[in-house]
Each structure stands twice: as C-alpha cells, then as structure tokens.
Amino acid sequence: MQIILASASPRRKELIGYLGIDFEVKVPDIHEHAHQNESPMEFCLRISREKALRVKVDYPNSLIIAADTIVVVDEDILGKPENTAQAFSYLKRLSGRSHDVITAYSVMLPGDLQEISKAVISKVYFADMTDEDINWYVSTGEPMDKAGAYALQGIGGVFIDRIEGSYTNVIGLPLAELYRDIRAYILKK
After folding, report:
1. How far apart are CA 145 and CA 10, in angstroms?
2. Given the DSSP bridges, would you call strands 115-126 and 98-108 parallel, antiparallel or unpaired?
3. From 41, 60, 129, 153, which residue has the greatest number of CB atoms within 10 Å?
4. What pLDDT sits at residue 189?
C-alpha cells in the first residue's frame, strides 16, 4: 500500500520516519486562513483535512497522512512570524506563561473517502525571557519558520520549563496517537 505524507515540513517527515514505514512526500497547495468565527481547534482540523483531501484527489488508492500544528495563546493563533518584529512580539507574549499547541492530523484511507481526523493538545510552559534573551533567540533565525516563533527541538528548547502532553505533538505530529490509528486500520485488513 502506498503511504503519502501530505506535508512540506521536514520535522513531520523526520517524525513519521520513526514509524518505520515506507512513505512518499507530496506537498498540498492550500490556503491556510481562518474563517470568521472559527475556533483554533476547528481551524486546525479543517486545514489538516483540506491538505489530505487535496492529495487524495491525485492518489485515491493511497493512505494519505496530513497534519497542521498551531500555537494558541488566549484563543489567538500564533502562526509563523512574518518578520523579526513579529517573532519578538510572539515570544514576548509567550514568556513566563503557558500556551497550547494543537496538532490536528487526518488520515485518508485508500478507496472511498473514509477518514480519521483527530486533534491533540499539549500544554507548553515557557520560562521568563528577558528582551535580551528574545533578541538573541530571534537573531539565530530559528523562530522565523516556526508556528509561535520557537522550536522545542532546537535552540528554543532552552526556554521551555515543561510540557504537559505529547512531546512530538509540539514538534508537529503526535506519533503515539497516529501510530495507534494507522495500526488499527492495517490490522483490520
């Protein structure tokens, strides 16, 4: 069975590689904008599903895995910063407090439009950061292509006090949950 990861994320590619399955990567072209009155959870689930559906059109007999990860603080989604000023602002907002990381994943099964869509939430607690800390971290460039302007698995990890929930979820793919869902499907066959 062909398995496709519908994602441009090198972190997701690395994480799914840990499952020991053969897969290909296809990058879906979708617009990731929230709809009016859409909650962060609804947004994340919708984007994950749209990514999977987009790839499913071209590969209807494959198992498609897609995901979307967002950082949420005070019900606001902190996406990838557009510039260093926004990265600084995001990190200042996260400093000394907790926030949620939501990763939604969708698995489109071969054949009909059967699917599994779930969201996993992890709570991340940031240490207090001085303006000097934030400026130094932003100057590394790491925050610029990361939701919420930080990478737990990188330099940003020095500012994380603790995590409640899935570590891999914060990186971009809740492996334990995804593995259970894929395994259950394969065992049914």
Report:
1. 11
2. antiparallel
3. 129
4. 57
Against a cut of 0.90, is the pTM above it? Answer: yes
Residue that the structure tokens 């994480």 belong to = 15
Asked if 185 and 109 touch (Cβ cutoff 8 Å), the reply is yes
Its CATH class, for the domain covering 3-188, is alpha beta
Cβ neighbourhood burial of 124 (10 Å; 0-12, 13-18, 19+): buried
| Residue among 68, 76, 100, 112 flagged as catalytic | 68
Q: Where are the domains of the chain?
A: 3-188
Q: How far apart are CA 22 and CA 19, in angstroms?
A: 9
CA-wise closest residue to 102 among 40, 177, 14:
40
Which own/partner contact pairs does 22-28 have at CB distance under 8 Å and 24+ positions apart?
23/65, 26/55, 26/58, 26/59, 28/52, 28/54, 28/55, 28/66
State the DSSP string of 7-45.
---HHHHHHHHTTT---EE--------PPTT--HHHHHH
Task: Give yes or no: 29 in active site.
Answer: no
**Cα–Cα–Cα angle for 65, 48, 94, rounded to 5 degrees:** 120
- At a CB cut-off of 8 Å and minimum separation 6, what does 122 contact? 100, 101, 163, 164, 165, 166, 167, 169, 170
